[in-house]
Amino acid sequence: MKILITGASSGIGFLTGCVLASRGHEVFMTTRTEEEAKNLEEKTDKLSLAVKIFKMDVTSKMDCEKISNLDLDVLFLHAGVGYTGLLENIDIDLLRNNFEVNVFSNLELIQKFMKSSSKCKKVVMTSSLLASHSCPFFGSYVMTKTTIEMMMKILRRENIFNDNCFITIRPGAYHTGFNQYMILSGEKSLLSDKTQNILNNIFAMIEERDIRSIVYKTVLAIERGNKKVYSAPLWQSVLSKLTF
Fold first, then answer.
1. Against a cut of 0.90, is the pTM above it?
2. Are 7 and 79 in contact (CB under 8 A)?
């Protein structure tokens, strides 16, 4: 299969691309900046992986045109951002950017992908176990992920009479640095140092260090895709249903 992955510079996106390439798929790994693309090339060269790498900022219309002529089978939308802060204080421009990156730009990519060829297509998109949960301090991020969940449900309904496939990936808390980046953004939203330290301590206790469980589920979704939703780690998936 020909698979394109956004947000592939590190973490889950990177390892998923590596696994898929090692399994014989033609993989396009994209990054937000040219510098990230260069660093990614160095990493994949060391692993002797035959992957194609290029810059594709999902908010750039020019960059997103690159997918039009690739004749892809699968679009894995993993790029995303998150910000912390109380909704009563959060900078509205940050909230707008959160939706621009996580929702609007990804939907525009889906639209381009659906028009790119006549063959059946598969969209796999990263959501979160926090989606649809009223989680204090992470409202901006959760709102975008809840929207993603509904967007994918609607796309499934709209494609009920064809073989196009729309799958949601729901990762829990993994130690990729993303959660720490979100917490650090709280400075722009007037989160106190004490609150940020508490949030960092919570993630230090609950984050999974090994990302292979969610990568396994993502590869399974891309290669087989016989379920609507894949989530991991298991204990966080169960806990999210019991506690929220």
1. yes
2. yes
Give the residue among 92, 106, 122, 145 at the shortest CA–CA distance from 7. 106
Pairing state of beta strands 122-126 and 74-77?
Answer: parallel
- 42-81 pLDDT per residue, tens: 999 999 999 999 999 999 999 999 999 899 999 999 999 9
Question: Counting Cβ atoms within 10 Å, is residue 85 exposed (0-12), middle (13-18) or buried (19+)?
Answer: buried
Token pair listed for 98: 């959160």
Q: Are the beta carbons of 156 and 166 closer than 8 angstroms? A: yes
The CATH superfamily of 2-243 is NAD(P)-binding Rossmann-like Domain (3.40.50.720)
Give pairs for 216-223: CB < 8 Å, separation 24+: 217/169, 218/12, 218/16, 218/76, 218/124, 218/169, 219/16, 219/19, 219/20, 219/23, 221/124, 221/167, 221/169, 222/1, 222/3, 222/16, 222/20, 222/74, 222/76, 222/122, 222/124, 223/1, 223/20, 223/23
Sequence letter at residue 42: E
